[in-house]
Design brief:
With 138 residues, the protein is an alpha/beta fold. 28% of the residues lie in helices and 27% in strands. It contains four helices and five strands. α1 (5-12) packs across α2 (33-43) and α3 (70-78) crosses α4. The longest helix has 11 residues, at 33-43.
Length: 138
């Protein structure tokens, strides 16, 4: 199955490239299948899960309000991340079940040692927040 043109357009906003290794965390049946398929098409490989034991270029972290502690999830997501790696925190959009307030994302990211650089519309129901390590720590 291939991603839709809209899915590919949205996945392109994640700035991923062919050959990158992307780890997916927090997958469940509510995740956007079209976005996932588009990411796989762009990188040319399947997404890896938490059992993957090598360095990854990016992490897609699907996270909802009831998924536990966001800071802990972010710390877990950055553990296998390459020095220039990025975490895409995917959360339900405002008005959707499981939405997380922007200030809660900012607080959790700062506590985990990350900085927010941008937020995008990742799909009809999900928004993506790009998180990176501050330059001084790279």
């Amino acid at each position: 199955m291939s991603a839709s043109p809209q899915g590919l357009e949205r996945a392109a906003r994640l700035s991923l490239a062919s050959g990158q290794i992307v780890q997916e965390v927090g997958y469940d049946t509510d995740c956007d299948a079209d976005l996932r398929e588009a990411v796989v098409e762009i990188i040319g490989a399947d997404l890896v899960d938490l059992d993957f034991e090598e360095v990854v270029d990016a992490a897609l972290l699907w996270f909802r309000e009831d998924d536990g502690d966001l800071t802990d999830a972010l710390v877990d997501a950055i553990t296998p991340l390459a020095d220039q790696g990025v975490v895409w925190l995917l959360t339900p959009k405002p008005g959707r079940d499981g939405h997380i307030e922007p200030e809660d994302i900012t607080d959790a990211a700062q506590t985990a040692g990350l900085r927010q650089t941008s937020t995008i519309s990742a799909s009809d129901n999900w928004q993506g927040t790009r998180l990176v390590a501050p330059r001084a720590k790279r």
